[in-house]
Amino acid sequence: MGIFVRHDCSYVGRTLAQTIRRSTTKCETQITQLLDRIMNASSDSVVSAYEARITKLEKEKLALTDKLSQTGKPKRPFGEMFELTISFLSNPCNLWKSERYEDKQTVLKLVFSSPLKYKKNEGFRTPDFSSIFSLLQEISGLKEGMAEREGFEPSEPLRAH
Asked: How many separate domains does the chain show?
């Protein structure tokens, strides 16, 4: 699984880099064409318009070059990302307890592979967990079902023997 993911990410990185290179080449071609037009232009206003367009294209080319240099580089060091991942996996409730709405959305996106389904008069349907939580559930040997339908107390009262 890790090899597939790594391969997939490198493919996306290569594709993005190719797209950026094509855009950079397109900018260079347009700049060259505009310079040729400037040489043949006789009106000062036309020359000024071409120069303004060249300036804009050079800024765009510079931004693309900068973006290309950042492609494929991680946003944060591996160690930091690993720590954050382990922290989240060990207790997703910590992030859920946050006051920020975005944090709660993040938890839902990371824990479940699809939106939670709710049926009127029946409640929430069985959720589809993300692959990592499905794997953790399988490894831990927990039974299906996270909580009782009625709440956190058993739906059937315990009997004393």
From this structure: 2
Phi, then psi, of 130 in degrees rounded to 5: -65, 160
Within 8 A by CB and 6+ apart from 57, the residues are: 27, 30, 31, 34
Question: What is the Cα gyration radius of the chain?
Answer: 28
Task: Give the dihedral sign, CA 65/15/130/140.
Answer: negative
Tokens representing residue 57 in the block: 């294209």
98-124 residue pLDDT tens = 888 988 888 888 888 888 888 888 888
**Token output for 85:** 């991942």
Interatomic CA distance for residues 140 and 57, integer angstroms:
57
Determine the 3-state secondary structure of 124 from DSSP: strand
| Last residue within a domain, chosen from 70, 97, 114 | 70
Contact status, residue 49 vs residue 100, Cβ threshold 8 Å: no
d(CA 96, CA 103): 6
Range of the domain at 98: 78-140
Residue type, 42: S
pLDDT tens digits along 58-89: 999 999 888 888 777 777 788 888 888 888 88
